[in-house]
Amino acid sequence: MHGTHDAGSPYAPHTDDERTAMLEAIGAETVEDLFDVPAGVAFDGEYGIDSRSERETRRLVRSILGRNDGLTELLGRGHYGYYVPSLVDHLADRSEFLTSYTQYQPEISQGFLQALFEYQSLLVELTGLEVANCSMYDAATALGEAATLADRIRDASGTRVLVPDRLASGKRRTLENYVAGTDLVVETYPTDDGIVDLEGFERRVEGGGAGGDETDAVMVYAENPTVRGTIEENLSAIGSIADDADALFVLGSDPVALALLERPADVGADVVVGDASVLGLPTSFGMGLGLFATSETYLRQVPGRLVGASEDATDRRTFTLTLQTREQHIRRERATSNICTNQAWVALRTAIHVGALGPRGLVELASRSVTRAEELAERVDDLTGVTAPVHDRRHFREFVAHVDQPARAIASDLQKRGFAVHVVDDHEIQLCVAGVPDERLDSFVATLEEVVG
Amino acid sequence: MTDDRSGESDGPGGRQVRYDQARYVENGRYEPLLSEKDLTRVEIDGGREDGDESEETVNSPLPDDLTRDSLELPALSEPELARHYTRLSQMVYGIDSGPYPLGSCTMKYNPPFTEDVAALASAAVHPDRSERSIQGTLELLYRLQDYLARIGGMDAVTLQPPAGAAGEFVGVRIAAAYHDHRDDDRDEVIVPESAHGTNFATAALGGYDVVELPSDDGGRVDLEALEAALSERTAALMLTNPNTLGLFERDIVEIAQRVHDVGGLLYYDGANLNALLGRVRPGDMGFDVMHYNVHKTFATPHGGGGPGAGPVGVSEQLAPFLPSPRVRKVGGSSDTGSDSSGGGGDSGDDIGGGTRGREPTYELFEPERTIGKVHGYHGNWLVLVKAFAYVARLGDEGLADASAKAVLNANYLASQIEYDVPYEPFHHEFVASAGEQDAADVAKRMLDYGVHPPTTKWPEIVPEALMTEPTEIESKATLDRLAGAFNAVAREDDADLEAAPGRTTARRIDQTSAARTPRLSWQALERE
Ligand SMILES: Cc1ncc(COP(=O)(O)O)c(C=O)c1O
């Protein structure tokens, strides 16, 4: 290397001699001459952002994030903090995985394609549906994509998308945006003691809601477990009501729940959506991995990327992105979705995590999600001033507890003592056991006793 | 291709490069699937919490009617799993493997220290935590909003969109909400023919009719065609600048004027911002709304397809429509409740991490006329942490230099290759034409020279397009090697190209067969 390194980006390797040689080859005097920018729009100010060494930058970020309180989180409602094995970090952080992009050149990307093919296969096993894509952004956008799928395949008349009256607001509000460009409208159906109110549901599907005669329902959405942690008991009935009405049955779940609870294919689900990063990512402020699986019937209407098997010139089995004519880069405004960059690396992490657990480990993790949640409910129910669970149902991972005192005050007292819980109503808190070690749960119960006592 | 010497490039630098990617072949087949290494079925035995568990069953606390019957997955030991994924990683080419000049994707080096800060335990917080208990997370988001506002010349920023296309969707939904608010019914979005597929798809997702805008002979927006396309039906024009040919839209001020004259909004697709850092700000060009593509411009890893992040900046009049929630600063120093740019410089003086004075506090708020949400929570948080770290590391000086070197590298590389580059003057990327050769075949052959090929066959305005973006991170020597690969392939005949690649893990893959008989899971393979 000749000359001295140019000041500026620490990741641009040029020396001044090289820069000069390159300019000479181009036939330009200065780098500025290469910019064809009219004077009127040139920016001659400064952003006012300091440059820092790597060490200073790390200190800066550490110092900012250091303002977060270190709390034990009993939080869930769609985002969970299960322990992620170290193996997942180390393998996924291999730079070939991290620094590659979409596999437009499959011959040089077989490793990632195979990992994504395996991820799709894991979801096929978990859902019982034949087709899983290799990712949407998160559970909420996957739900939105399911609605646009329903829009594309529906029989002409219907416009209603039915969701439970209790649905995480992030999902509901995202769904509203995804259907805004269609004539679909999002409406609710009632729940009863934490699960679907079958009679009310049927009435809404048939169009006999408060508004009188309405158009057909084109899609119904139910969750298992629900946002309040209850396990849905009537999935098959929901599925057949949806089927009778020719509505697309979309079921929300996640890979841990799917390992134990009823298999979506067995209850008539047409599409499964949810957050697959429940495995693979630690608590990440809501960052997720949109799970999207559906039946073969809708193969040509699936949004997002699909990896398929093929053969190479030596006739050996290989993998490649396939059915790309559904996608935006080919089909443009007639694509099945606008998604391009997705969550592939998170899907890789999820697949490694599932692999690390194996079938037994995964089912046991799911079983513990039931027993630990229900045991915690019993223990807090023993405290004066707390009734749990609020719903007389089986629970997965989390449950709602009634507190005699204002829930907000209790949560705030708990926070001062190192615990974070959900406030879901004036006198309701929600508690989740995922990722919380047993000894922390013990000390939580003791702390809650102090707080409500 | 069995000849060991084919694929050795003799570039202008006179370097001999030969590449062989890892390839495991066992009994005539490549690395087995996890499912071919093991599949174990466990039965789920309902309604028992304890009692005997056999090798094949797991006891479940739930009654059978609430559970599935069984689950069949690979059961591998940890060392076996480590080898499986390590082998797979060896069959992937990333930026750390060599040059990756994939046009429009800005495949720049991803500094690993950003992984370290994203992995900090203090970053691992739940989105439903009280605002008071996550001041660090909110401060980082606020500061990143502020950085991006300054860089884009925008007044307000949301970090919620999880990718560029999601940012576009926010833009389109904001345009809809804005016109709606003014009782102005508009149903068209104009997109240049050379635009990225997501622009068309996003406009359609938002319910708009897409009006395609032809380019002029120079490869830029045709002002006459624009005039014809614009009307009181125009909700927005989506543009990237430099455009996908790398050309700066010189008439941008005029374009903005005309769009605004008919009451439309001007949207900036931030995919090409890496050309403009420190030199031009979309806000100054007259754009009302833009997305930033942080996995491109701000060096967060592409992760084999994602995750990315696509924050959106808007001018003041559109700020009330931004997605919910946003972060604002309350109390503390200068600018209360506003995150507009220029709020007293970068407070980079707090890196000591020790005693901090009167600290401002940060809170979430719902913009007055918000479009709602495009993600269940706050978007791709871990990506945002990395983007913040990258911008804080480079600062003004590093960012401006990144663009300078990106443009220098593209121009130098183009000057060294034999393929024709029909449109000039380009900036951070150029589109060469493979001429009589098939661009897709050229790409396959380039793989044998140990480089990643350019984006092919797009934009279609250049026949057999080779859209090339080397980014600022390549040295002259690497660019010479890259040019050597282009030139070696340019001189080869069609038969050689069609037989390529020969040195990658897999040989040429049959796309038609994959699509004709979709096999999308190991279960589907077993059924064959
Ligand atoms: C010009 C252009 N616009 C938009 C996008 C979409 O961005 P993303 O893939 O982050 O959704 C891309 C990139 O892939 C692009 O190159």
Account of the protein in words:
The complex is a heterodimer of chains A (453) and B (528). Chain A has 453 residues and is of the alpha/beta class. Chain A folds into three domains: 1-67, no CATH class; 72-83 and 359-452, Alpha-Beta Complex (Aspartate Aminotransferase, domain 1); 88-352, 3-Layer(aba) Sandwich (Aspartate Aminotransferase, domain 2), CATH 3.40.640. Helices cover 37% and strands 16% of the residues of chain A. Chain A contains 14 helices and 19 strands. In chain A, the strands form six sheets. Chain A has a seven-stranded mixed sheet, sandwiched between helices. Chain A has a four-stranded antiparallel sheet with strand order 15-16-19-18. In chain A, strand 5 (191-192) and strand 6 (195-196) form a beta hairpin. Chain A starts with 15 loop residues before the first helix and ends with a helix. The model of chain A has no long low-confidence stretch (mean pLDDT 96). In chain B, the strands form six sheets. Chain B has a seven-stranded mixed sheet, with helices on both faces. Residues 1-7, 9-14, 334-345 and 347-356 of chain B have low confidence and may be disordered. Chain B is globular and about 75 Å long. Chain B is built from 16 helices and 19 strands. Among the domains of chain B are: 40-73, no CATH class; 115-339 and 359-393, Aspartate Aminotransferase, domain 2. Chain B has helices at 34-37, 78-90, 113-118, 135-152, 164-181, 197-205, 223-229, 252-261, 282-285, 294-297, 381-416, 439-447, 476-490, 494-499, 511-516, 522-527; strands at residues 9-10, 16-17, 25-26, 29-30, 40-45, 57-59, 70-73, 156-158, 188-192, 209-213, 234-239, 265-270, 289-292, 312-314, 326-330, 361-365, 430-433, 455-456, 465-468. Chain B is α/β, with parallel strands linked by helices and 528 residues long. At the A-B interface, helix 1, helix 2, helix 3, helix 4 and helix 5 of A face strand 4, strand 5, strand 7, helix 2 and helix 3 of B. The structure holds pyridoxal-5'-phosphate. The site of pyridoxal-5'-phosphate (PLP) has 14 residues of chain B, from helix 5.
